[in-house]
Design a protein that fits this description.
By secondary structure, this protein is mainly α. It has 4 helices and no strands.
Length: 148
């Protein structure tokens, strides 16, 4: 049963990393290259769509990692799982404190109501997101290493 939990947790976190990596390095670059207001509208839609899903994915990944750490206590690799869980806590805190406030504003913007500094705010979100992606990639790497 522990093996199934380990694999399931690693897959769930890996998929989350893939989505967030894609947002950072593919989707947002595509959105930024769209003409006129299309990029801002695409980011707003993405913020609404992923903003509804990602809290469950981040918290779920953290809970799964914590359950793995507790269930596997005393087994080899548990320390790595604890480190991964701590990194996932950092990613959740970053999300709540830094990214979600910007996302909550951005997902309501239209070309008619967006603030003058909307590009600066999106750029700040991108910078925070790059750091968060690095944090969750590290968490994923620790989980994968714990499997070995």
């Amino acid at each position: 049963m522990l093996n199934a939990l380990e694999v399931f947790t690693t897959v769930i976190v890996g998929l989350m990393v893939g989505v967030e990596f894609s947002v950072a390095f593919v989707m947002n670059r595509i959105f930024n290259a769209l003409p006129e207001d299309s990029g801002q509208l695409a980011r707003a839609h993405g913020g609404r769509m992923l903003g509804a899903l990602m809290p469950f994915w981040y918290i779920g990944s953290l809970v799964l990692s914590a359950v793995w750490a507790v269930a596997g206590w005393g087994h080899s690799g548990t320390g790595l799982v604890v480190i991964a869980a701590v990194l996932l806590i950092v990613s959740v805190l970053m999300s709540i404190l830094l990214l979600v406030p910007i996302n909550n504003r951005g997902k309501t913007w239209t070309p008619e109501n967006r603030p003058a500094d909307w590009k600066e705010q999106m750029s700040r979100w991108d910078r925070y997101h790059y750091v968060r992606v690095g944090v969750i990639v590290a968490a994923f790497a620790f989980l994968v290493t714990a499997l070995v």
